[in-house]
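Researcher: Please generate the 3D structure of the following complex. Treat every line as part of one assembly.
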Amino acid sequence: MIDFDRKIHFWQGLRIKILILILLIYIISFSAAGMIIYFQSRANLLNYLGEKLKAIAATTATSIDVSQHEQLRSPEDENSPTYKEIQNHLKRIVAANPGIDSIYTMRRSDKKNIWLFVVDSYETTDLNKNGRIEPEEEKAHLGEEYDVSPYPEMQKAFTGPQADKEITTDKWGSWISGYAPLYDRQGQAVAIVGVDYKASEYLTALRQVKILILSIGLLWGVFFLLVTSLFLYFILIKRLGMITTAISLFSSGNLDARIKAPHWKDELETLANAFDQMAERIQKHQFILEKTIKQKTASLQKKTYSLEKSQKKLQETQIALMNILEDVEEGKKAIEELKSKYEFILQNIGEAICVVNPATRIILVNKIAEKLIQIPASRLINQPAIKVIKIVDKKGTPVRPFYELLKTEKSQKWPLLYLINSQKEKIPINFTGSLLRDSQNNLLGAIGIFRDISYEQKLDQMKNEFVSITAHELRTPMTAIKGYLSMILEGDFGPIKPELKKVLQETYTSNERLIRLIGDVLDVSRLEEERMEIREEVVDITTIINSVVSELAPKASAKNLYLKVKPLPTHLHVLADPDKLKQVLVNLIGNAIKFTDQGGVKIEVELSKKEPPEVIVNVIDTGIGIARSDQPLLFRKFQQLEKKLLRHPGGTGLGLYISKELIKRMNGKIWLKKSIPGKGSTFSFSLPLFKKGEK
Amino acid sequence: MEKKKILIVEDEITLLEMYALKLEKEGFCIQKALSGKAAWQLLKTSSLPDLILLDIIMPKMSGYEFLKAIKKEKRIKEIPVVFLTNLSPRPEEIAQSKKLGVIDYLIKSDYTPGQLAEKIKTYFK
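Model: Done. Output below.
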């Protein structure tokens, strides 16, 4: 946690740190500049002084009488008038130039770098307290030796005017000196003139320069610091203060705090803006967070409440469960008993039972099934049904009843299938399949109940033989009756009375009906036992219709009825058994003729518009029609509607039933299209259209 | 025109007599046999008929057996045979019959003797 309220000590503040830094920079730079200025000024001063001294020395040299000067050799000459004259001359020049301490002349000695003084302008009479002249006040006497080796500029003085480049010090004090040669008449430098300028004078001038430089630097420095600190305050400190204030406010919880920097156009503005943005986001997130927390808290409270409730319920359930458990123990015993009972029933039931799971794996078989399949249950359980229970149809094509049941999810019956047991025996079976579901209607598997029907088949065969033989045996006497009656009626045994003829005719008709009835009964029995063989041939329906019409035409004309076929544009083909189709047509057209007394019968063929296309045959009569209440009974067995209509005997009551069954087996439909009592009926049937290329 | 000779093989004597009576009236020469065996002897001993009317269900030798037997004999096998029975034929039975050289398959109860005579006349046209 940052303590924004912490007081920053003045000397630790950024302002003072920056100021000190600036001050340091200022001092270093000013010192450097001051030194440069100082040393430059000093050099200039020295140079100026040197030039001045050289000029004075040179002027002095020209003003001295060389010949007189050359006369002064021995120390006694010091008191000579010549010496005094030259000395005075020199004294005058000293007096004329302030700052000059003394002017003197020197000449070379025999020794190297040892020169000898000739004339010296300086002369003092002041004595010290010992009554002597101070050594540094002592004048340079004529012939006094002076070692010039420490003074390089002096050594070059015989060649031309020279000046010291530094302050030189000897026993008389500190000086800056200028020199110039003294030439004789031959232009030979015989001596030099030296001019001493007091070093103290020079140093004073130099000090003045120093003071000037320092004062200027100080003044400038104060001004500079003032401006800098003002600048610092406005540019940095104030802005930093603003930022700090905002941040401290924000951190203390005031999420509305913003810097809102004016256009500073610098890094601080960027910083401020960044902070503002960050604050904005944090505030937003804070808001969302608070909201979420509120919601979560609410839901948590709810959950806690429901949890408490569930806990209570759980406790109750626990108690209830304990009670139930006690009951269950008792119930278990009962269930075990019941289970063993069911098991007993299942095992000893007369039919073979096989149960499969949804993957058609066998989960249960009873003893009868085991016996029939001739494989022990242990080798059947958990096996795929198709692998161990081989079933084929009449034609020998494999059938998978369990798979079919589970696939279609519909219970189904197969009246005749063949089970091939492990001994490769073909056993005829009747197979009833149902679906196994639990109380929630979930599919658990399928149950197959099948029965060996060899015995029934044998019985059936016997029955059929019996029916055939009976029919045959019945037909024989009836044929005899029919034959002889017809012969009597045809007059083969002589003429007969008209009354007798009528009776004989009636007898003949009854016999005919009996013959037809036998035929129909045979058909029905074959249809019901699936023994009726239906061929599949491509049949031109128009050809069949025309042949039936021509066959029945005599009957129609006998009743004075028309019998016509509405012409068809194209020959339509259907896949049907031509004989059975003919049988149906004979039945329908025959009925139409039978029940029509006026008008006639018309046959229309049309092509349905639906897919796949069907050929529809309509048999339209103008007969007596069928009462609405009788219509639903039409296609049933032995519906002798005509019983009520005694004028029309001869029906067996099986014709429409047989027609319906035949059409059904040829994949068609038959129905009464319309019927109005007294006006006529229209019977229709449909068969799928055969298109070339189809099988 | 010479009378056409017809052999009727029929175990039911009533029907045999009835057909014989009517067909003779209609101008056919009739040979009667009550069994396959009798018919077989007739065929061997007398002159061959122009047509055989053959019943199917007969004791001892059925119509099919008789047919198979005569089809092995030279000359005899050339005689046209018509099945005359009261068995409702199945389609495959008719097909089988045609294969054995039967020219027609008639249901007795469908025809009066007079109609039968008319039908036979059509075979000789």
